[in-house]
Amino acid sequence: MSGTFVGMPAFPEAAREAVGNRTLRANLRHATHTIRDKRAKAVAELADWQQLREAGKQIKDHTLRHLDRYLLQLEESVVRAGGTVHWAADADEANRIVADLVKATGEREVVKVKSMATQEIGLNEALAAEGISAYETDLAELIVQLGHDRPSHILVPAIHRNRGEIRDIFRAEMGSWGRPAPDGLTDSPAELAEAARLHLREKFLRAKVGVSGANFMVAETGTLVVFESEGNGRMCLTLPETLISVVGIEKVIPTWQDLEVFLQTLPRSSTAERMNPYTSMWTGTTDGDGPSVFHLVLLDNGRTDTLADEVGRQALRCIRCSACLNVCPVYERAGGHAYGSVYPGPIGAILSPQLRGTQSEIDASLPYASSLCGACYEVCPVAIDIPEVLVHLRERVADRGGKGHRLEKAAMKAASWAMDRPAVLAAAERAATRTRRLHPKKLPGAGAWTDSRELPELPEKSFRDWWKGEGR
């Protein structure tokens, strides 16, 4: 899988640096608290929210159990509607398919709808290597691209930037990408939005090829659905002559009726809106309306392997609402870049290690990027038990071995042996209480645990001895 931020350290080191950045922490605290408070109010308006949440979970689980059948049905429906379907096993194959499709049109630039899947596979970089310019049109993605930056949030990729920083980026970079920023641009939100609008408009009107992802794909009809809040997606999906959509295979749902559930839960969980401002749906091609050529690239890239894990597969329910990021105390302090992936926060901590494997130092550290407080599970609109998967993945990392893990295994084996022998355990307890004044403050070989925790003091006598004497 692509999508690793090359050169990024493991989460503990990256988070330690991020926590020391006061501006970053202030930006994150303001943004996440604002979004989470609005979301809570929007969700509280629905008396049947828990039922909707359960319905979303059931729809997703049912689809994942029968994913092969629904993907074939989706392919048939898309082809019947005039589209072409391509299957990509990994990032390299997906990038190659998209690059070849763009080059076949004779064009050398594309406009893009915000898409996590294309970020995951590193599509922009792959297209650039082929001499094709990809222009992000989502406001936050535009800020990230102009700033030569990386996204740090699923919903608001530029959440780590404040208005002053955005103004400076627009002033310095817009001219090299197209229409320059207006003279005297201030950090007023209205002026910044207008500058972006003018900059993007000429690209919308010129582009012949659009690239998108999709929030959902309806197997029954072959319909793809994109949720967005600015209207840029609508422009990318309707104006170009050719539309190429790169979508993870887990985004399929069985029927049009199933979409009703997510039309209610996704906007409230992500932007805290009762209805999504722009919900674009397209089914193949229609003469005289929208793109005349439509290609759907179905992306695996580790999803089939994730599906095989009975505990970890629930991560594939994710509808990318980002609610878990906005309530996570770890994300609020460390920010998205510390996760070393396009999928940050709690969902990234369980999705990235499954899609990419836990061989790298970054991915092996992500399951530990959590306090296991459970806030992420409480807000998830499809009830992904993120803490359960985190513990499951920690076990996988531990089973892989390493010096620290070998010591842990040896300690657990010794403890198991002692606990199976009551006389040995009793003797060990007495020895521990009698030598308690000699005990170190930190356990040898467990510095990562005890550096920030004090070992509890042992009592003068064990519970066993107390019970035999005065406890009765």
UniProtKB/TrEMBL annotation:
Keyword hit for Lipid metabolism: no
Taxonomy, superkingdom: Bacteria
Lactate utilization protein B C-terminal domain ranges (all copies): 395-471
SUPFAM superfamilies, per the entry: 4Fe-4S ferredoxins, NagB/RpiA/CoA transferase-like
Positions of the LUD domain: 73-285
Residue ranges, annotated region (Disordered): 435-454
Entry keywords, A to Z: 4Fe-4S, Electron transport, Iron, Iron-sulfur, Metal-binding, Repeat, Transport
All residue ranges annotated as the 4Fe-4S ferredoxin-type domain in the record: 315-384
InterPro entries, A to Z: 4Fe4S_Fe-S-bd, 4Fe4S_Fe_S_CS, FTHF_cligase-like_sf, Helical_ferredxn, LUD_dom, LutB/LldF, LutB_C, NagB/RpiA_transferase-like
NCBIfam families, sorted: LutB/LldF family L-lactate oxidation iron-sulfur protein
Name assigned to this protein: LutB/LldF family L-lactate oxidation iron-sulfur protein
